[in-house]
Amino acid sequence: MLFESARHEPLLAPPWDAGRAHDAIRAIALDMQQTLDPARGWPAHPLDEIEAPPTGLKSLYLGAAGALWALWYLERVGAVALRVQPAVLVARLHADYVAEPDTGEVVPLYFLGEVGVLLVQWRLAASDAVADRLFAAIRENIGNPTNE
C-alpha cells in the first residue's frame, strides 16, 4: 500500500500558488542547512526505523548523498541560495561511506550503496578518479540480483 493514513498527512485542496511552493522549498532547504552536522550529516528520520552509524547515513536513498544532491540541484536551478557547499561536503562522503557504510558492508548498489554515493560525488565535482571508481563499482554490481 502506498498510502497509510497513520504515516501520511491527508491531501489538501488549496489552489496552486507558486510563491507558496517556492517559500516551502526555501524553508526546507534552510532547515536542512541548519540541521546539518558536517561530521555526521543528518539524523535518520524516526519513521525509517534505521539505526544510523556514528558517522551518519551516507547513501543516496537514506543519507547525505541524496540530500546534498538535492541541495546542489535546487541551487543550480535558482530555487535557493545555499550557505553550505554540497560539492565540498560530498568530497569526503565516499571515504566516510567506505569506512562505515550504511548497511554494515560496502556494497556496489545505487540506492543504498557505493554507486549512489560515487554518482553524486562525480556529478557535483567530476574527476577522472571518481569516474574510474564509479565505473568499477557499477561493473561489480552487474550480477546483483536486486537489479539496481
Q: Biggest β-sheet, characterized?
A: none
The radius of gyration is 17 Å
- Oligomeric state as shown: single chain
Unreliable residue stretches: none
**Number of E-type strands:** 0
Roughly how much helix do the residues carry, as a percent range?
40-55%
In N-to-C order, the SSE pattern is HHHHHH
Helix segment tally = 6
What's the overall average pLDDT, rounded?
89
Please indicate the percent range of residues in DSSP E strands (runs of 2 or more): under 5%
Distance between the termini: 22 Å
Structural class comes to mainly alpha
Shape, per Cα inertia axes? globular
Report what the structure shows.
The chain is globular. Helix 2 (64-76) packs parallel to helix 5 (114-124) and helix 5 runs antiparallel to helix 6. It has helices at 18-35, 64-76, 86-91, 93-99, 114-124, 128-140. With 148 residues, the chain is mainly α. Helix content is 46%, strand content 0%. The model has no long low-confidence stretch (mean pLDDT 89). The chain starts with 17 loop residues before the first helix and ends in an 8-residue tail after the last helix. It has 6 helices and no strands. The longest helix has 18 residues, at 18-35.
Quick gist of this model?
With 148 residues, this protein is an all-alpha fold. The protein contains six helices and no strands.
List keywords for this structure.
148 residues; 6 helices
Topology:
Elements: H1 18-35, H2 64-76, H3 86-91, H4 93-99, H5 114-124, H6 128-140
Helix pairs in contact: 2-5, 4-5, 5-6
